[in-house]
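EI: anyone free to look at a 222-residue chain?
SC: sure, send it
EI:
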Amino acid sequence: MNFFGHAVVAGWFEADPRYVLGSMLPDFASMSGTRLGDVADARVAAGVALHHRTDDAFHSAPVFLDLMAHVHASLASTDVGWGTARAVAHVGSELLLDGVYLARHATAPYVRALDVAHGLAAEQNLGAAFRDGGEGFERVLARLRDAGPPHAYRDPIRVAEFLDRALARRPRLRFQPGDRPHVIRALERLQPVVTERADELLAYLREHELLRVDTLRDTTAP
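SC: here you go
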């Protein structure tokens, strides 16, 4: 699941912007080219923990596996390499899902979380550390705040452009000349399927998370 989807899931449990920020922070670290280190702030840490639980459920969700299979089928008869096709199936599905959720869910919690992150970073009080010292995160945060909610994820052409840039540093995954038109067509075929099944996927995650929260309460009860 991509960062906006994580913000939606976090909103089921808390409105605290630190919690919502934590739910997105591992993705922001990856986008920064680094990894998340120690997380000292309790609410940020709780959001990070939710992120990992949600990803565990998301990556095994039948709907997500179906979406990935749909992309693989679309690219099977093309010259797109196996590694690139796998990355497009995984990340492309996540970005198109974010596009649907951006159209269906409030963006204010996401914006507030970024604003809080900016304020905390300026005070050097983010409550979380990055392996590179946080320079990459500050650049990503500035870009995200300037861009506003990423509605470009609703456009398969823009998603293909993003994937091309994001995978360029990965020799086994990056696009080869001529790949982008095939990827665009695969994403265009996927988009109506994502639109139809996006809420089904959220329902699966909601059931998983609520059951997990109940289990945690049972095991921590006095």
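EI: Residues 179-220 form the longest helix (42 residues).
SC: 👍
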